[in-house]
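User: Here's a structure from my thesis project, written as structure tokens. My advisor, Dr. K., wants to see whether a designed sequence matches the one we expressed. Can you design one independently, without my sequence as a hint?
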């Protein structure tokens, strides 16, 4: 569900099958001053019509159906290069290496520090030329 933001403002889309993590991450990102939209699956995000307006994507690595890394790869292959942060409760060095090689901004293990997430969001938005607000 979209949380209202100002036109031209950064839109952060969060994709996580765990509703408690999804809502906690949404609250955290909103506290940084960003507009947020959440999805329970990669497929839901792709079908939403919001890919073009998303300026940064935060996706869980392990989800039923399409994984966060597979979502990133699908977006890249379809010429939608949305800066992507992957989060996971099950860190795996092999998957982390694959993700970073595929061009994700970062691979964060849950739980992560709020300041760490904000740093990576700012990095992602800086690559897109979007101004970041101070929280």
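Assistant: Designed independently from the structure alone:
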């Amino acid at each position: 569900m979209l949380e209202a933001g100002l036109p031209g403002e950064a839109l952060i889309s969060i994709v996580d099958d765990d509703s408690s993590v999804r809502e906690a991450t949404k609250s955290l990102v909103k506290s940084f001053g960003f507009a947020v939209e959440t999805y329970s699956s990669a497929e839901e995000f792709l079908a939403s019509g919001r890919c073009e307006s998303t300026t940064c994507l935060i996706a869980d690595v392990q989800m039923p159906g399409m994984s966060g890394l597979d979502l990133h790869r699908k977006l890249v292959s379809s010429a939608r290069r949305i800066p992507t942060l992957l989060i996971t409760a099950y860190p795996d060095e092999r998957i982390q290496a694959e993700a970073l090689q595929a061009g994700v901004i970062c691979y964060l293990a849950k739980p992560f520090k709020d300041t760490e997430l904000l740093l990576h969001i700012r990095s992602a938005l800086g690559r897109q030329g979007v101004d970041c607000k101070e929280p």
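When you compare it with your expressed construct, this may help: The chain has a mean pLDDT of 88.
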